[in-house]
Specification:
The chain has 605 residues and is an alpha+beta fold. It has two domains: 404 residues, Glycosyltransferase; 172 residues, Sandwich (Jelly Rolls), CATH 2.60.120. Helix 9 packs antiparallel against helix 10, helix 12 runs parallel beside helix 14 and helix 14 runs parallel beside helix 17. 43% of the residues are buried.
């Protein structure tokens, strides 16, 4: 067998070499498609503190006439004209209200825009009573749903006569102002689309003004972005990678891997004020690491916090420990009282793509944190609460996402629409990984321990029958024409090796499966630490072809941290297999006959 820890260190070394943990100052390009939030910050451009009025103009371009819905949020009075016709108007004084959802922002107002073929001029008049002064526009949020076949309008100033192309790369808007709030004579002129006559001056508050561009902000971006992101932006798989590096440091005795995790944690904690400034002051709601600011989703709360908990548990004293404690206290509060739960079941659920969608992923996004938090807290009542919550949810999730007929987990379950979602490999990985985390720390005398152990064994037996003869599992576990995929394979290898080590599994077939799976994984790892064939992040849908067509990438941390944990567990298994195989009274579970095992590697190509 190829030495597991040496393989893990190849990957870890590459992570250390390629991860700067720093922001890069940059001018973000104007996003040319109306498929997300767009804004004009009049206050940043013209100043605040006095009543005023100003205009902003852009163009929406479509290949064929269509009607679209546009959501809007603004302070005070706002009116909008499309091709000279008023399509929105709301007077009075009001505060801007923007509500953060899991993968979207929700706005209070909306209007219909009848777009003609070609370019359409959108003119906004905005007023301020003297305070905040912004408008924000977006198409209705898809809330993370898988949407295909929809082409959104282009937005921006491209094609506008007498405008330098360099301007169109900086901004999608022109602005004019500020004017006294009570002045109204410009309405007629602008609505007649004579606003793009450059060189004409208008009487503003402090003198003559003409069309210009909004204030352009310099933002802090991340180095080396790839299609799937970077090694160090804020999300669960990068937090998971830092967590894996901590475990690798313990397994090898090499401090540099723990230092990597500490840099991840410190970078994000220290950067929160900077990120919050970009999101809330500069309106860069999709700027680097924006998910760390008030995002109500386990992917961006509990799961990436695991390396913080681990360091708190393992190191008695270190710089910034107080900041770590504050962060974890905040996350425990979120888990107990703020994360949305499925009514009647008490399990973590989501609002995406529809309210009360239960994702199998959330077994992993939530249960390991609850278990680690229980081990961390000195409050005995809280410890029992967290253990009971994790154990209860681990069992209750099965009523929603476990497919009894297939003996596999579906990716998700819609509470109001009973359809079967595909048996995606990585979601099955999240489930068995989460169960193994609960079993490792839950007292064996706990009333739910036997039920969780039994489910772990049943799931393991089912996975065994879907492993290809070359050791891989497929991206859709039970689709013979699906691609071989590294992250799911790595998680299954890790979980089965962990099951053997703890005595939860005893059949020698699992030992053979782990060895074969590890051999398959090493065939996708290069000598420089590059890891191939990792499925990209994936939303949920009942359309199986969506999963079949997901892109695969090199070095996506969705897979890297799974491979690191697999290496650690395989190493432990190899060092102890003579002692633990068949120990602790574990019983093997017969492989079900409800679906035939794929019989040859050729069927998996």
């Amino acid at each position: 067998m190829i030495e597991p820890l040496a393989t893990a260190e190849l990957i870890a070394g590459k992570l250390i070499r390629e991860t700067p943990f720093a922001y890069r100052l940059e001018l973000p390009p104007a996003h040319p498609v109306f498929d997300r939030m767009h804004f004009v910050d009049f206050g940043r451009t013209f100043g605040t503190g006095r009543p005023a009025m100003a205009y902003a103009c852009t163009r929406l371009t479509v290949a064929a006439a269509k009607t679209i819905k546009i959501q809007i949020e603004h302070n005070d009075t706002c009116a909008i004209w499309l091709n000279g016709r008023e399509v929105y108007s709301l007077g009075g004084e009001r505060q801007l209200k923007l509500r953060r959802d899991e993968r979207s922002f929700e706005m209070a107002h909306e209007f219909l825009a009848d777009l003609k073929s070609g370019a359409n001029t959108l003119l906004v008049r905005s007023e301020t009573a003297g305070g905040e002064w912004r408008i924000l526009l977006q198409p209705p949020s898809d809330k993370g749903a898988v949407v295909s076949g929809v082409t959104p309008p282009a937005i921006g100033l491209h094609g506008l006569a007498n405008l330098d192309d360099k301007i169109t790369s900086l901004t999608n808007w022109l602005v004019l102002g500020p004017f006294p709030r009570e002045q109204r004579e410009l309405d007629r002129q602008l609505a007649e689309e004579r606003q793009f006559v450059f060189g004409k001056m208008h009487a503003g508050i402090a003198g003559l003004v003409t069309w210009t561009i909004p204030k352009v902000e310099v933002l802090g971006g991340l180095f080396n972005p790839r299609p799937w992101g970077t090694n160090y932006h804020w999300n669960y798989h990068n937090g998971g990678t830092a967590w894996a590096m901590q475990h690798l440091a313990a397994a090898t005795g090499r401090r540099q891997y723990a230092d990597y995790a500490s840099r991840f944690c410190d970078f994000h904690l220290e950067g929160i004020p900077f990120v919050e400034h970009q999101v809330k002051t500069l309106n860069a709601v999709e700027s680097a690491n924006h998910w760390i600011i008030d995002t109500p989703l386990l992917d961006f709360t509990l799961a990436p916090s695991l390396p913080f908990l681990h360091r708190l548990r393992m190191e008695a004293d270190f710089p910034k420990r107080a900041l770590y404690e504050q962060w974890i206290a905040r996350m425990i509060e979120y888990a107990r009282h703020e994360q949305i739960r499925l009514p009647g079941r008490g399990i973590f659920t989501r609002t995406t793509p529809v309210k009360f969608t239960t994702w199998t992923d959330d077994l992993f996004m939530g249960m390991p944190f609850l278990m680690q938090a229980a081990a961390y807290t000195k409050d005995e009542a809280l410890r029992r609460e967290l253990l009971d919550d994790a154990a209860g949810q681990t069992v209750a999730f099965n009523s929603q996402v476990w497919d009894e007929a297939a003996q596999l987990y579906m990716h998700a379950c819609y509470s109001e629409r009973p359809v079967k979602l595909p048996h995606w490999s990585r979601c099955n990985g999240w489930a068995i990984w989460a169960m193994s985390e609960v079993l490792q720390q839950l007292p064996a005398a706990h009333r739910l321990f036997p039920a969780i152990l039994r489910q772990f064994q049943v799931h393991a037996a089912s996975l065994l029958r879907w492993q290809a003869t070359d050791g891989f599992w497929l991206n859709v576990v039970d689709r013979p024409d699906a691609r071989k995929e590294v992250s799911g394979t790595a998680i299954f290898v890790m979980a089965l090796a962990r099951g053997l080590r703890h005595g939860w599994l005893s059949d020698p077939a699992y030992l053979r499966s782990v060895s074969l799976g590890w051999h398959a994984l090493t065939s996708r790892i290069e000598a420089d630490g590059t890891v191939h064939d990792i499925c990209a992040g994936t939303m949920c849908t009942e359309d199986e072809e969506y999963y079949m067509q997901r892109p695969f990438y090199d070095d996506d941390t969705h897979g890297l941290f799974a491979v690191l944990f697999a290496a650690i567990e395989v190493d432990r298994m190899e060092k102890n297999k003579g002692r633990f195989l068949g120990a602790n009274g574990a019983h093997s579970v017969a492989v079900p006959n409800s679906a035939a095992r794929l019989s040859n590697a050729g069927a998996h190509e």
